[in-house]
């Protein structure tokens, strides 16, 4: 059993609007969107944040980051998007399972 919210979404224990999945990662819509399109991309493996990564994660992180523009285009973000990755209290991280925010499609609200 895990207490991690995003592990529970990954495992189907908590519902989410999943828009993409593969062997490395999962993407689902943010429950409190700060833009017309706002989704999160998480590694399948529980990694807390960038402080919790090692050189052995180089391939995984690279593959996920290369996948983001593809998912963004599938979501209609052809003109571009913002990617945000919060790390630790100093980065105002709230959920401690690493996630890229991907935002676009219009004005952003409440997101600095
Ligand atoms: P952080 O501040 O950790 O970078 O961002 C956490 C994000 O997760 C927030 O944008 C928040 O709206 C989103 N979030 C929190 N709980 C849930 C949930 O249960 N489901 C989904 N889909 N998103 C969530
Ligand atoms: Zn987790």
What is shown here, in short?
This protein has 2 helices and 5 strands, in the order αβββαββ. With 112 residues, it is α+β, with helices and mostly antiparallel strands.
What structural class results from the helix and strand content?
alpha+beta
Instruction: Supply the CATH architecture.
Output: 2-Layer Sandwich
Rounded to an integer, what's the Rg over CA atoms? 13 Å
Shape: globular
* Tally of helical segments: 2
Strand count, sense and closure of the main sheet?
Answer: 5 strands, antiparallel
Tell me what portion of residues adopts beta-strand conformation. Answer: 15-25%
Question: Percent range for helical residues?
Answer: 10-25%
* CATH class category: Alpha Beta
In CATH terms, what is the fold-level topology?
A: HIT family, subunit A
Give the ordered list of helices and strands. HEEEHEE
Sequence-ordered SSE layout with sheet pairings:
Layout: H1 5-10, E1 18-21, E2 25-29, E3 37-43, H2 58-74, E4 82-84, E5 100-104
Antiparallel strand pairs: 1-2, 2-3, 3-5, 4-5
């Amino acid at each position: 059993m895990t207490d991690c919210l995003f592990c529970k979404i990954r495992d189907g224990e908590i519902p989410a609007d999943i828009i993409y999945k593969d062997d490395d990662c999962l993407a689902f819509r943010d429950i409190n969107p700060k833009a017309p399109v706002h989704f999160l991309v998480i590694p399948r493996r529980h990694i807390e944040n960038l402080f919790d990564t090692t050189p052995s994660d180089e391939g995984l992180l690279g593959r996920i980051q290369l996948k983001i523009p593809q998912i963004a285009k599938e979501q209609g973000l052809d003109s571009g998007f913002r990617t945000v990755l919060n790390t630790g209290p100093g980065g105002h991280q709230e959920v401690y399972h690493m996630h890229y925010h991907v935002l676009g499609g219009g004005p952003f609200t409440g997101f600095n």
